[in-house]
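Email to the structure team, subject: Sec-independent protein translocase protein TatC model.

Hi all, the expression group asked for a predicted structure before they design truncation constructs. Nothing fancy, just the tokens so they can compare against earlier work. One-line instruction: predict Sec-independent protein translocase protein TatC, return tokens.
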Amino acid sequence: MSDNRIVKAIKQKSKSMEAEMSFFDHIEELRWHLVRSSIAIVIITIGVFIYYDKIFDVVIMGPSKPTFWTYRMMCKIGDMLHSSGWCFDKIHVDLINTEMAGQFTLQINSSLLIGLTLGFPYLLWELWRFIRPALHEKERKAASGFVFYASFLFALGVLFGYYVISPMSINFLSSYTVSDKIKNLFDIDSYISSVATLTLATGAVFELPILIYILANLGVLTAKIMRSTRRYAIVIILIIAAVVTPTPDMLTMTVVSIPLFVLYEVGIVVAAIVEKRKLARAKELDL
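Reply from the structure team: attached below.
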């Protein structure tokens, strides 16, 4: 009897050790996926650091120049509307550095930030490679375009934030004064953090359809619920637009709100597609 207990204990111990080893194997695999992602991001960051002069002048400082694409397009729209208020001859951005190592750390931090942004699709792909083996064949097919769509929406959001929200916000905030006696001198860190926050926050917000897809697959969200709560969603979207854009003018809020409304409607379509797939699977199981 005691021998049987010992045998059972040994078997139980071996099973627990196998499960433990399996868990650590998964952790080790995830670590290597993250290591490869980190190496890719570091390589991109080094490339950005090497060519930083051109990137700083063209990309980072772009929204502070009147020759920026957005300002030129606004000027053309103003000409079409016969309104002179849409053209800007000068953007009042006077930047300063207040720390001894400020410009050096600025180059490192902004290079890393750009590296993370450009390396985001590869990071998603590595995470997808880690999750993929745990999914069933049908789940793999259903989520096969995850990396592409998530990367596309993020890139679209980043471009929208960079070309629309950032220049409009910079133009407003740089020219805003409460008194003529106060001169606006902006710290370079403040300028870059503003551009980065507006750009990356918009990229994150544009992932809304992906979030809706995940919640719909989990059964937390349905197209019916989204349609019935559309009026509340409109209020939430307006609040998000107000938070994302530091400018109080209605034009900027409207420009930001419109894509979010479109994304919400796209999310309803996505949720409806997920529901149809679930019904189709249920019918297949019944058969």
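The beta strands are 95-96, 186-187. Residues 166 and 195 are 6 Å apart (CA to CA). Ping us if the truncation boundaries need rechecking.
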